[in-house]
Every structure is written in C-alpha cells, then in structure tokens.
Amino acid sequence: xxxxVKGVRDLNINAIRARQSRPSVARVYSYVLGxxxxxxxxxxxxxxxxxxxxxxxxxxxTNRDAVLRAARDMAADGIRQVIDMGCGLPTDENIxxxxxxxxxxxxxxxxxxxxxxxxxxxxxxxxxENIAVLEADVGDxxxxxxxxDVQRLIDxxxxxxxIFGITLSFLNDDEDPAGVVKSWADxxxxxxxxxxxxxxxxxxxxxxxxxxxxxEAFGRGRWRDEKQILELxxxxxxxxxxxxxxxxxxPDPPRANEPSEERDLSVWEELVVSGMxxxxx
Length: 281
Hints:
The chain has 281 residues and is of the alpha/beta class. The protein contains 12 helices and 8 strands. The longest helix has 19 residues, at 58-76.
C-alpha cells in the first residue's frame, strides 16, 4: 500500500529521536484527547493542563469537534478534496472518515511537520491511493503544493477545502500566517473553503496561565485577538455564523428526545475560536 510502504522507507529515525526530547504540539494534543502515542515530555505538559488547570482540556476537545464539523460541512457543500494542515496524530474519527460518508471517492492530504506524527499517520491513515500523509512545514505553502502527493491528488481547478485546525496559532507574526492563507486562496478554485481555528487572547488569570504555558512549552506561536484572527481570512467571504467559539460554531443539533445544551461557555471554551470562509467566483 502506497502510504504504508512510504512511511516505512522514509522513517527518519534521527529526526524522531530529536523530537522525543521536547514536547510536540500534536503529541500533547493527542495525550489530552486520550491518545497513547506520546513521550514523557508530552505527558508532563498535558498533565500540567489537566492537573493545574482543570478543564483546560476543553481547548483540545472543542477544537477537534469543530474541525470534524467543518469537514462535514465542506463535504455537504460539495468539497471532495481536502488538505488538513497540521493534522496531528490519528484519532478515532479523522477527516477522510467524515468526508467519505458523503463522498466515498474523497481525496485527503494530511500535513504535519513532526516526523513521529507523519510515520504514525502513514501507517494508520494512508489506507488507499486517495489519501497521503506528508511531512512539511505549514508555513511553506509553495513546498506543499509542489509535493508529488499534492500534485497527484489535488486538482486546483476544482473546489478545495483547506483546514487550519489551530495550526496558525503556532506561526509567529514574522512567518506571515495571513500570507500563508492568501497563498492558498490565490490558487484555489471558486467555491473552495478555508477553515481556521485559533487560540484567542483572553483576559482572565486562567487564560494568561494557559497562553504562557503553551508558548513556553512549544517555544513559538502567537495568540491573537478577534480582529487579528479575522484578518487571517483576507478577502475570503466569511460564512455564517462568523467567528465563534469552537463550542458554538455550527453545533450538532440535539438528538431526538434530548434537550438542547444551553449554558455559558467555560473560560477555556472561550479561548479557542473558529470560522470558515468561501472563495467567491
């Protein structure tokens, strides 16, 4: 199988060992969500959030749920090809699982810069020729577009979905995250979609502690306010309901005989927001 063979042959042991000595965004994220593919340094960071800042795991949970709803809605809008930027480790439900409920022939490219994540992704996600997992820097869109798997799977003359699930929060200002989005928007066909979730600066002590710990642990990134996050979409048309907390962004309807969940957001749920935009014709 293409993805699995490539994952074995391209496994960069030295790069993976180097990553083991410092926490990884993807591995900490996975640990908080209950995953087991992590190291002690990742558990230390995850345990800090879950132990010293109880409830902060909702940052990861509500973000992931919103990402899957974004994939669902892209599929409903006719999107059959998606690039997931900063895909992280595989979970029980992944982007291709969601897309293929509506489009069995959907094509997905998963991108991450962590060789450990890529190796696992190739083993578990690349189940057929229409799925690829590649190691690349989200901040270098030209290199991603030129990758052979992207050239093979993505047709830029057809509507495309791009998912930036919290990824742009880990690009510094001088890495021009808005320029990264624009680079993709300029190449996309009309009716394409761009989804962004992002850490939003808060004013509480819990928010300050969370932002400080994340930036300290991973050594990079930028939390942004509402105006700065909206600017990342550039000239794309922001779709309803606009920029909202992930918990409130296009929530699933209540199940039959279940009351709708109406409550105030927790301090943690206020700190991660999302929105989706369309490229008009």
